Amino acid sequence: MVIVVVGGLLGLAIAGLPSRREDAPLRVQTATTTVVVGSTAPPAPSTSAPPAVRRPADVRVTAFNASRVRGTAGRMSTKLKSLGYNVLPASADRTPQATSVVMFRGGSEAEARALAGSLGLDAGAVAAIDPAVQATAPETELAVVVGDDLARSLQ
């Protein structure tokens, strides 16, 4: 009998029939449990903070030319310096690619996302550093691999 009554009350609550106080959740209690239907309590706040982004001067960056335009890595290095980054010498040319990528090493993903945003790139242009880039510039924390898209804006 208790199950039938509880089921009926739950059915009414789910159907959306008003309760005595519209902003109070419906409480159905059996001998062992209490069920709250329609609670509007806010979710618990997140306890993890977003990673802190270091100042650009504290981040070592290397520019790579992966465009079809000569001198692009040098022009990107100049732009990075103007943004306040600790710029390492520009690196050798890479195979040309259409789109640019900001690569990050270790725990520098937040900085890579910030730099990509400063360069007008979307979040999809951020990736973990590849072994070839890391081998060419072992001290770098971020590598800007400049493709044809950014090369045009640097001319």
Explained architecture:
Helices cover 31% and strands 18% of the residues. Strands 4-3-7-5-6 form a five-stranded mixed beta sheet. Strands 1-2 form a two-stranded antiparallel ribbon. Helix 2 (72-82) links the parallel strand 3 (60-65) and strand 4 (86-87). The chain has five helices and seven strands.
Task: Give me the side-by-side strand order of the main sheet.
Answer: 4-3-7-5-6
| Series of secondary-structure elements, N-terminal to C-terminal | HEEEHEEHEHEH
Question: What's the gyration radius in Å?
Answer: 28 Å
Number of helices: 5
Q: If you average the pLDDT, what whole number results?
A: 81
- Secondary structural class: alpha/beta
Q: How can the largest sheet be summarized?
A: 5 strands, mixed
